[in-house]
Amino acid sequence: MAKKIRHPKKPKPKKAEVKPPKQRVVADAKAALGNVKPMTAAEIEECFRRFREAAPEPQTELKYTNPFTLLVAVVLSAQATDAGVNKATPALFAAADTPEKMAKLGEAKIRNFVKTIGLFRTKAKNVAALSKILAENHGSEIPRTREALQALPGVGRKTANVVLNVAFGEETMAVDTHIFRVSNRTGLAEGKNPEAVEQKLEQVVPKPYRRHAHHWLILHGRYVCVARRPLCERCIINDLCHWPGKTVLQKTVLQKAS
Known about the structure:
Elements: H1 21-32, H2 41-54, H3 67-76, H4 82-95, H5 99-105, H6 107-113, H7 120-137, H8 146-150, H9 157-168, H10 177-186, H11 194-204, H12 213-223, H13 245-257
Helix pairs in contact: 1-13, 3-9, 5-7, 6-7, 10-12
């Protein structure tokens, strides 16, 4: 009896990939970046007036007790969330809240306190090293210049600017990913890297707002002007923002609500 010949099944034609609305919005938003009209001086003034009205005295979300513990908290927060750092630091600072105590605690014990934080091994090493340097070379005082701060292990320009601003009231601009995104996206301050954005912000932010400018911008980027799907419908500077993508986002929100 002859065997039946089985013909291979024809593959089903692939359906054209259709991105969900949210993904299309994200793609459109990314495409719009880099094509933003700069804010005018009057718009920038109004932008920060509204930020100040909404939050007159913005504060860092990192928990600290003195300039030294602030420095340590900021070092630990690199590539980590403030919430994650805040879970680890109360016990650490209870054990050591001065450079001498931290240096005496040592790298291994510091590592055990901060092991829930990303890159904890490197960070523990840096905290131990900077504590020793502060105790031996600075009389356990936190330096008040950017250059001296950046000479400490694990301290970059952004960390130095945060410490100078929060601990000493300097009018510095600590540009992180949130501030970089908000500044470029809105047309407030364009720059290809954080330092370029920092320099631009120093030029355009009106004097009365410079003390708290970086806090207003980081909080806005963290909770409203977020990366994947900015909450344009909740933004207090929506009408001042020059980002082309916000129109797409608003239409999507309205369509979902209808």
